[in-house]
Amino acid sequence: MSSIIQAVRGMNDILPEEVSLWQHVENTIQEVLKSFCYDEIRFPIVEKTELFKRSIGEVTDIVEKEMYTFIDRNEESLTLRPEGTAGCVRTVIEHGLIHNQIQRLWYKGPFFRHERPQKGRTRQFHQCGVEIFGIPTPDIDAELILLSATIFERLGFKDHIALQINSLGSPASRAKYKETLIAYLTKHTDQLDEDSKRRLNTNPLRILDSKNPAMADLIHHAPKLTESLDDESRLHFEGLLNYLNALNIKYEINPCLVRGLDYYTKTVFEWVTTDLGAQGTVCAGGRYDGLVEQLGGKPTPALGFGLGLERTVLLLQTLHQKSLALAPDIYFIADSEKTLETAFALSNSLRKALPEIRILMNCGGGAIKNQLKKADKSGARYALILGEQEAANQSIVLKNLRENNPQEIFPQQQIIEKLSGLLN
Ligand code: ATP
Ligand code: MG
Predict the structure, then answer these.
(1) Does some domain include residue 339?
(2) Which pick of 156, 174, 418, 419 has the fewest CB atoms within 10 Å?
(3) Which domain holds residue 408?
């Protein structure tokens, strides 16, 4: 026997039983997006490496150590997308979609980061992302957050997930704050861990969201970003909070929320749960007013979020259900090759007349008794049985597999009427 080839570490298979939960999550999200009038956009999984370096920032975890980058056969450096915003922005610039236009867009698909795999953290993971272009005012920040809140409410997460929010201000006020923060942290370098020492002069804001308990006190007493906001950002933030209050959306202002990507300005937010252990951030996003220009487009205000599907499915499993596998409505049994031909024709007319119906055909033969065993195992509600005798007089047998009723025989031409009555 040959050796078995296993999947790449951190790139998980999603098996059929679990797929039903994924579909439930994806359908719920898509229904909400549709009701808010957002349009789907699709862009490639592979982009030029430069795109991510220029947008996410050179001194970030993603670009420094997490990207799947390779040289292709044309000697070009390419990268499997580690997040969606950069690719989406490239697409809308390249196709002129944001030229004097507002866009409300969404996408979903796989993303890739070389991280240490653990519960809620994989190397191929999946996100549903939303990006909005062309609106500078805080009403749209509120809409974006309302949209995410609606998704979580529909998934039944309301009491299990909380919104944290902060403002990073303008690039200028952030630069000023960066100096204040460096000055404060430099006074306490003895309390900084290795990672933070390295970040002190390159990306000191990231030190604020360190999870190292030994630094918690130091971070707690650090000067607050929200205190050094420029007037415009402060008004924007207050405007957003007013809308959230009016919408009755609960939030917690977290002055240490800085997000790991360089492109954010003003609003940043995360939806966090305590039901998943360490990997508690299910959805994260914010405003990135400078990114379109940074990637060669005209200055365009923009904002968005990424919602992690692995963590959403995990939370659904933890809180509500293990699986949503759909059993067939009908298991179709035929006792010979000849009757199977008629059975196929009947199942075909049933599917045409009742497109929602789920019919599982018994393929591969077997005695009726064995087929009935398979029917039971499939979880189907009913079995339709076509034996030689029924085929000869154009009737069919209906057996309720879940209740102990006697089976019924009726003419084949009544099959649609009969089943639509039973299954509705
Ligand atoms: P984390 O704090 O978990 O490292 P992040 O800040 O790197 O997350 P973002 O880039 O903001 O994450 O991505 C948005 C969402 O995508 C996260 O909140 C999370 O739900 C999900 N996500 C990110 N990385 C992974 C991963 N490696 N595996 C599974 N989900 C992920
Ligand atoms: Mg990360």
Answers:
(1) yes
(2) 156
(3) 330-423
